[in-house]
Amino acid sequence: MIVDAKKEQYGILIYIGTLFIFAAMEAQAKYLAESFTVIQIVWARYTFHFVVISLVLLLLTIFNFKIDFKKPRLLKVQVLRSISLLLMTYFFFVSLSKLPIAEATIILFASPLITIVLSPWLLKEKVNFSSWLAVIIGFIGMIIVINPSSFLEISEIDRSWIAGILYGILAALFYSLYQIGTRILAPKESTITSLLFAGVAGLFVTSALMIINFDPLTGRESWQLPDWHSWALFVSVGCFGAIGQLLILWAYAKSKATTLAPISYCHIIWAVIFGYFIFNSLPDSRSIIGAALIVSAGIYAYKQIEKNRTIHN
């Protein structure tokens, strides 16, 4: 992909703005989790996401813009990718409800390292020694953030912390599976087809749980009637998610993936800012050191993967 410098700068700015939008969505989800079940928040995330994406595509069709929607060729992969995104969102929102937003985000960003571990089996890609070394360094960073000594504590707060960490790791795993699915689909499916299918599992599964009024996390009722302020936040969570997805497509149309991938770690910076101004929390020195290792390892590993892919191509 060849792009000029000015377009690439626009793409970078769009992408940084996109990461801000996603971090804002996650801050709203964390705020809502203080009063509502996580499954209700996830339902709002996918329902209003679907409404916004559908309206945008409808308007583009009305004004005669070409919509490259095609019948999926790899339906099984589309479904598994959609389920992975749903589980990633659910586990990450649960993690957000139990951890400071910065720490939860740092753990999620271990997903590129998990992708490397899974690549030999799911993508049939060879992983060189330097990439494995990056994985080890990244996981050391995650251990520093997690602080295993906290597992020895038995207070209620520490149990919540441990649960948040475990849910965060699950979120990172399923985000990795989602990214692997994206890489499999990218050369074979249209972008619009994958965009629409990504939220299908979330929409149907969470809507079903709303109808039967069941929260899988607590085993209790999932629905609580929001007031007008909470409704605004629920709608905002879904709208921010949809706008973020559309902006990502725009950013990648203007910049190379190799340029944008390292910038994705700006997400952590936005999370720290939201954590400070909304929740009055800042990551401690342990989390900062762990994040530095995870970010460094992730950027290095990604560059190695792209280098190997270029050589093979």
How is this structure best described in words?
- Helix content is 77%, strand content 0%.
- The chain has one domain.
- With 313 residues, the chain is mostly helical.
- Helix 1 packs parallel to helix 12 (266-279).
- The mean pLDDT is 88.
- It is globular, with a radius of gyration of 19 Å.
- The chain has 13 helices and no strands.
Features:
single chain, 313 residues, mainly alpha, 0% strand, globular
Secondary-structure blueprint:
Elements: H1 5-32, H2 38-62, H3 75-98, H4 101-108, H5 111-122, H6 129-146, H7 156-185, H8 191-198, H9 200-212, H10 228-254, H11 257-263, H12 266-279, H13 285-312
Helix pairs in contact: 1-10, 1-12, 2-3, 2-9, 2-10, 3-4, 3-7, 4-7, 4-12, 5-6, 5-7, 6-13
Shape: globular
Strand content: under 5%
Helix share bin: over 70%
Q: Which class best fits the helix and strand makeup?
A: mainly alpha
Tally of DSSP β-strands = 0
User: Regions with pLDDT < 50 over 5+ consecutive residues?
Assistant: none
Q: In a nutshell, what does this entry contain?
A:
The chain has 313 residues and is an all-alpha fold. Helices cover 77% and strands 0% of the residues.
